[in-house]
Every structure is written in C-alpha cells, then in structure tokens.
C-alpha cells in the first residue's frame, strides 16, 4: 500500500476511536469517554485493517470511504456489548431490546462519524489520490499470479479472524462446563446452560435434574453456599437481567448463595424440590 492509502486508513481508525469516545461520553460522562475511546480504538484496529486489505484485494479503492464507514459501524456494534455493561450504565430493568437500540445508535455514530471524516480527508487529498491511482492503473495488469496473491491474503485474513474469535470467546458453554467437576450422584443430568456477558466478565447458569437429593448437598459443598433469602444480597444473578425461557426461578423460595467481594466472584443456587431441578449460577463482576 502507498503512503496515501496508509494515511487514509489511519485517519479512519482515529475517527472511529473519537466517535467511540464521544458516544461513550453521552452515556457515561468522563468514564464513558475514556472507556469508549479505548475499546473502540482497540476493536477498530483489526476491523479497519481487514477493511483496508479487502478494499485492496477486491480492487475497490474508489469505494474506500464507504468501506471505512462500514468498518466504523461494525466497530460500533461490536464494542457496544463491552462499553454498555447493563450493571453499570443501565438499571436492573434493562432489556435486550434496549441494548439493540444502543447498538444501532452506536453503529450510526461510528458509520457517520468515520464516513464524514474520511470523506473530508479524501476531498482534501483528492488530487494526490487521483495521481497515485492513475500511476497505479498505468503499471498494473491483471495476472493469475496477482489473483493468487490476493486470494491468499483473504485466506490469511479469515484465519486470523477465526483465531481472534477463538481467543475472545473461551467462555462458551461448550468450553466452560463447571458441572463436570462436581461429584454428582448417578441419575443427575444437565438440562440447560447459558452464558451471560456483562462488560468484560461473564457468568454461567445451568440447570440440573436430579433423582437423589444428595445432589443438592454436593452443589452446596462445592461452592461453599449458605442458605439465604431470595431477596438477600448474597443471592446474585446477572442472568436474571435477560433470562432464557428455561430459567424459571422467580417462584423458588429455597435459595443459597456465596459472594466473595475480594475476588469479585459469586455462586448462587435455586432448589426446586417439586420439579427436582437445581438452578446454578457462577460468575464474577
């Protein structure tokens, strides 16, 4: 890539970072400005790098303002889940619909903010860009070698994204299965499990159907739980903010909890003896 292209995508990255900070400022004041800028800047690096590479691979330099705006929108959507922790910025009544509204606004802010700045930069350097483009067109000629190089680059980019996704999602239900560490009596089966992400932390909830009530004692001992009132501060649940259909604990009176405020972790248990179900949630904040 020539210097003009590198400068353009650097400006696009800076514009997305600033847009993330401004959007965070609206909802989180100074803290939102800092968190929004940092997270948007970090997320924008691989996203804008990918957009720049794909623009080159598919011969789309004329549309790089649009691709930059699209990259800004994607950054807004992906960072929303991190910036807008429902336990910090929203009250306990926040629904997933509220989050989607904020994500949409973040996408619009990222797209229009990045697109406007990139368009201004492109117009300011339009003459230089046209000269570079004409020189490039004069020397470039289609060849199978060039095509092979470009699609090899696409394969490498795809591989890098798969690697990134594997790193940032180690807490998927298939990878994080704490119930396997429990010495549960025979006849106890796992029925459902779910991950709830809040900011950089995650909690996992799962339900166990048991035959022997010894399963209750195993869970209590494993997590060092104490009996508590359903409305007690020792009974913590992030999953209750957006519960899946099977997470039906509102009617259960027998509850146990343990909160470690030093390690910022918690464990909670709901016992439905009538249905022979245990609802367990473990996580941190």
Can you give a write-up of this model?
- The protein has 285 residues and is of the alpha+beta class.
- It has two domains: 3-168, no CATH class; 178-284, no CATH class.
- The chain has six helices and six strands.
- It has helices spanning 3-57, 64-83, 96-124, 126-139, 144-168, 214-222; strands spanning 189-198, 201-209, 226-228, 255-260, 265-272, 277-284.
- A six-stranded antiparallel sheet has the order 1-2-6-5-4-3, covered by helices on one side.
- A hairpin with a 2-residue loop joins strand 1 (189-198) and strand 2 (201-209).
- Helix 2 (64-83) runs antiparallel to helix 3.
- It is elongated, with a radius of gyration of 25 Å.
- The two termini are 43 Å apart.
- The model is unreliable at 85-97, 134-138 and 170-175 (pLDDT under 50).
Which structural class do the helices and strands define?
Answer: alpha+beta
Strand order of the largest sheet: 1-2-6-5-4-3
How many angstroms does the end-to-end distance come to? 43 Å
What composes the largest sheet? 6 strands, antiparallel
The tally of domains stands at 2
Helix content: 40-55%
Kindly state the number of beta strands: 6
Shape type? elongated
Strand fraction equals 15-25%
Contiguous helical run count: 6
Spell the H/E element sequence: HHHHHEEHEEEE
Quaternary structure classification: single chain
Q: List low-pLDDT spans.
A: 85-97, 134-138, 170-175
Rounded Rg = 25 Å
Mean residue pLDDT: 81
């Amino acid at each position: 890539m020539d210097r003009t292209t590198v400068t353009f995508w650097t400006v696009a990255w800076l514009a997305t970072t600033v847009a993330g900070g401004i959007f965070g400022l609206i909802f989180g004041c100074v803290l939102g400005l800092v968190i929004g800028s940092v997270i948007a800047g970090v997320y924008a690096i691989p996203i804008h790098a990918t957009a720049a590479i794909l623009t080159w691979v598919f011969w789309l330099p004329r549309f790089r303002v649009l691709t930059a705006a699209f990259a800004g929108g994607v950054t807004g959507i992906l960072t929303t889940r991190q910036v807008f922790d429902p336990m910090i910025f929203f009250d306990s009544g926040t629904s997933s619909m509220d989050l989607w509204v904020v994500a949409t606004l973040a996408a619009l802010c990222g797209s229009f903010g990045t697109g406007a700045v990139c368009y201004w930069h492109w117009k300011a350097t339009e003459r230089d860009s046209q000269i570079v483009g004409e020189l490039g067109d004069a020397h470039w000629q289609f060849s199978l070698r060039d095509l092979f190089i470009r699609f090899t680059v696409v394969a490498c980019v795809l591989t890098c994204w798969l690697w990134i996704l594997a790193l940032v999602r180690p807490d998927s239900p298939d990878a994080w299965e704490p119930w396997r560490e429990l010495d549960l009596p025979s006849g106890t089966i796992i029925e459902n499990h779910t991950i709830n992400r809040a900011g950089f932390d995650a909690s996992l909830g799962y339900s166990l159907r048991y035959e022997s009530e010894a399963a209750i004692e195993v869970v209590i001992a494993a997590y060092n739980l104490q009996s508590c009132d359903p409305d007690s501060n020792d009974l913590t649940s992030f999953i209750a903010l957006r519960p899946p259909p099977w997470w039906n604990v509102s009617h259960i009176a027998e509850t146990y909890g343990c909160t470690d405020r030093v390690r910022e972790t918690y464990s909670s248990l709901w016992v439905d003896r009538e249905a022979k179900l245990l609802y367990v949630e473990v996580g941190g904040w």
